[in-house]
Amino acid sequence: MKYPKKDLIHPISGSRWNHIWSGFVGDKLAMLALIIFIFYVLVALLAPLVAPFDIADPAFMDLMNAEIAPSWISGDSQFLLGTDAQGRDLLSVILYGTRLSLTIGICAVLIQATLGICIGLVAGYLGGRIDNFLMRCADIQLSFSNMMVAIVFLAIFQSLFGVARYQQLAMVILILVIGLTEWPLFARTIRASVLAEKQKEYVDAARVMGISSKRIMFRHILPNTLSPILVIFTVQIANAIVAEAALSFLGLGMPATEPSLGSLISAGFAYMFAGSWWICVIPSVTLIILILAMNLLGDWLRDHLNPRAYKD
């Protein structure tokens, strides 16, 4: 007699999720961080609607309006946060820059997570030589500075294909470079979780029922290893945004025509001590608040998705 192959996912108790949610609602700092992050996401999505000016408009860049101070200093209500050295409304470019930085950060981490989860699942579940080979590849990757790898790759690309070609593909290249240099963190975390999960009874039952290894890995084991992945995902988005900002500050990031927060900080740094401090300071504060909010969310998730903390 053949029995139907039912899903054997090890359930996560509802009481644990209730504990997590009640802890989140009761943590004012975590709630504030979530509200700030949601605000940034909404502003990024609605940038074309809420920005005072359209950055694609040729008339947007007007040197006659260059380096106008914020409205609370200059009294000019047309430019709330002032203008940069090219006469662009700083509020508009910050809104679009936030959109670009979040897009690069999230897409890069999606690449990291996809590659790392697949490699970690295969290494942890199959073990043996495959596990050794994949983890040695991860060790080799971790032995290099991620920023160094990104700088070398981007510099070589600019030298081979020219600055003009690089500027056309800057966003895609940044996403790929940042995404392909951080996958070992996901892989090693998933592997450790899989090594613990594959010894449990529901995995043995799935094997006895003849369920394929692929289905066991992705349908049964993976959902039970998502807690640490959520924490890493949140923190890594912040790290990816910082990496993009650093590369842009070094001149290897987004071009001036497609401003990200990093390129805005880089462009404004030259005017920091020339009287036009707002060109650098305001984008810097915008970036710091975003990174701080995401790190606070990551720390909160790490503390409350930890089974030991729940048991206590």
Automatic annotation (TrEMBL):
Keyword terms, alphabetized: Cell membrane, Membrane, Transmembrane, Transmembrane helix, Transport
Regions that span the bilayer: 29-51, 100-128, 140-160, 166-186, 225-250, 270-298
Family matches, as SUPFAM superfamilies: MetI-like
Matching Pfam families: BPD_transp_1, OppC_N
Chief site of localization: membrane
Any one GO BP annotation for this protein: transmembrane transport
Subcellular localization(s) per the UniProt record: Cell membrane
Sequence ranges assigned to domain ABC transmembrane type-1 in this UniProt record: 98-298
Presence of keyword Membrane: yes
Family named by the database record: Belongs to the binding-protein-dependent transport system permease family.
Name of the protein described by the UniProt record: ABC transporter permease
The species this protein was found in: Marinomonas profundimaris
Classification lineage: Bacteria, Pseudomonadati, Pseudomonadota, Gammaproteobacteria, Oceanospirillales
